[in-house]
Specification:
This is Histidine kinase. With 385 residues, the chain is α+β, with helices and mostly antiparallel strands. It is 64% helix and 12% strand.
Length: 385
């Protein structure tokens, strides 16, 4: 509010300076063009107007009451000298020429007297004296020059009152807008802090669960490098135009051909389970071509078998042997884990049939399961070529 008041006062002083100087110069032109004032009084009157202009310029800089008094004295002196130095017949002409100075130049001081009671009193007194001088020079109170002077003082007084009341109202509105903006900014900052806290909590919980899932050891550097290599391979396939076709969480078929080499996909399965802590030893065939839908079913069934080993066998290693002939491709998944009694496990708890056997039978293959307590488990998977 204080800064706004200072800017308001500076604007009003600048306006006073511009209006006062312009009105004084207009009166100079009017008096000079009338050719009714003798040379010596004319020079003295113009000297007073020059002092008035200088005082208005100085008033525009600091608004001191002394500059207000100097402006009023020099302005009234100019009006008095110029109206008394001419004959009675020419006074009405000079009074008309001095209307801008008396009704505009002196009246402009009203706009910048807020908070200066002495300056305001001097300005009001100057208005009364200037109206009286113009009235005497015109010969009557009802003359047009007198009306012009009074109209100028009334207009500037109305403008001064309007500005004095409007600016505080605008200041309050600006302050309320600023308060609303600060409240909105604080709310945004609070929301951002809340989201940052929630994100930090989420990351902390996720990191804790990751450590628990890896027995407190965390992810090894080797596993991170392998994962980065897999991600790079996925991005390379996507950049080359391949389209991921998710069949199961974590598994994608990224080849665009109708037949895919089995060795490449088996290697990706091996790497995936290696990152999860299960070492897979591969034996037998290196490369076999299978139709896409057969390959998907075969790899999904193989992944289910290795997942069962990882979860239930209690050993860190599994062996996969791949053999094939002209009609079939067979994979034997073997582990030396705890094993189990097939008859002791109910069909509702044995997900092998639903997840592996049915999937292979849909493409013309089959699966068989062999296990005994303490002797591990062997699964034979068959898929047509």
């Amino acid at each position: 509010m204080e800064l706004l008041a200072q800017e308001r006062d500076r604007l009003l002083r600048s306006t006073t300076r511009v209006v006062g100087v312009v009105c004084a110069l207009v009166s100079v032109v009017g008096v000079a063009s009338s050719l009714a004032v003798p040379a010596l009084p004319l020079v003295a009157g113009f000297a007073c107007i020059a002092v008035m202009v200088g005082s208005l310029i100085a008033f525009g800089w600091n608004g001191s009451t002394w500059w207000t008094a100097a402006t009023i004295l020099s302005g009234l002196g100019a009006v008095a000298l110029l109206t008394t130095a001419v004959a009675a017949d020419d006074r009405a002409v000079i009074a008309s020429a001095l209307v801008p100075l008396a009704g505009g130049g002196l009246a402009s001081l009203l706009m910048a007297q807020r908070g200066h009671p002495v300056g305001l009193g001097l300005t009001v007194a100057a208005g009364v004296v200037s109206a009286a001088l113009v009235s005497w020079a015109s010969g009557t109170v009802l003359a047009a020059p007198v009306s012009g002077v009074l109209l100028g003082w009334v207009l500037i007084a109305v403008i001064a009152v309007w500005i004095s009341r409007s600016i505080p109202r605008v200041a309050r509105r600006i302050y309320s807008i600023g308060t609303a903006h600060r409240a909105e900014r604080q709310a945004s900052e609070t929301e951002a802090q809340r989201r940052q806290g929630a994100r930090l909590l989420h990351d902390t919980v996720l990191a804790t669960l990751t450590l628990l899932a890896h027995s407190g050891v965390g992810v090894s550097e080797h596993a991170m490098r392998e994962q980065a290599a897999e991600d790079a391979r996925l991005l390379r396939h996507l950049r080359l135009g391949a389209t991921p076709q998710p069949q199961q969480s974590g598994d994608y078929s990224l080849t665009r051909t109708e037949e895919s080499p089995l060795g490449q996909t088996l290697e990706s399965v091996k790497q995936r389970f290696g990152r999860m802590g299960l070492e897979v030893a591969w034996h037998g065939t290196g490369q076999v071509l299978l139709p896409k839908h057969v390959l998907d079913a075969f790899l999904l069934a193989l992944g289910e078998c290795l997942e069962n080993v990882r979860r239930h066998a209690g050993v860190p290693e599994a062996h996969v042997t791949i053999v094939h002939d002209e009609a079939m491709v067979r994979a034997m998944v073997t582990d030396s884990g705890v094993g189990f009694e097939l008859d002791a496990v109910g069909s509702e708890r044995l997900g092998f049939k639903e997840s592996v056997v049915n999937r292979l039978r849909e493409v013309g293959g089959d699966a068989r399961l062999f296990s005994a307590p303490g002797s591990g488990t062997t699964v034979v998977l068959e898929a047509p070529r």
